[in-house]
Amino acid sequence: MRIHRHEPALNAVVETYVTPGRRYLQLVNTPFLSDPAVRQPFGRALAEDAVRVTDGELELLLGYEWRAQLTASWLVAFARRAAHRERIGELLLANERAYAGRGFCFALARLGTEADARVLVDYLHAFLPRTDRGEQDSAMGALTYLDGLLGTDHAAQFLADNGPWARWLHARFPLDLADVPVSLDQSRDLIADQCSYADQCMKALPSAP
Asked: What InterPro entries would the database entry show (predicted)?
């Protein structure tokens, strides 16, 4: 098990981008999106870090544990660091880290291309048949968001009556679908809110001289 404090380069990037103010914890449930007192300062700090973080630092974070990966995915998303699309896709499909998958789905939605939609389609083909662990709801939200953005209909293949999405819901919540914590529309709207937030925060940065 890796411990970042034992690796000076990794420790430096974790202490710079992940742990200050327990940022990673804020990124799990995104309370800042609905809290006017912190929405602007939190987003400004994220935007500033998204610009200054190097590709090498992002690679270090993406190669570590879920807190670092979640933070890295938000930095990638904010500044649309498309060079990390392939790595984020690999990590999402590996499905090894709880919570980080939500960030990967957001990053792919924010990058906003057909290539990102294909990654989400591949993930859903692989993981909708499973209920052990995954971010299927976030992935479906991201894919339906991208369909709206790109004018595509990739999500339709999963949404037929008794199709993969319906079967996953019934398997995950077998007693009562009323127990589903977040609807598909809510998952899509959350992704849309996150993308809009990132756009607003990046546009608010001072222009370079």
From this structure: DUF6000
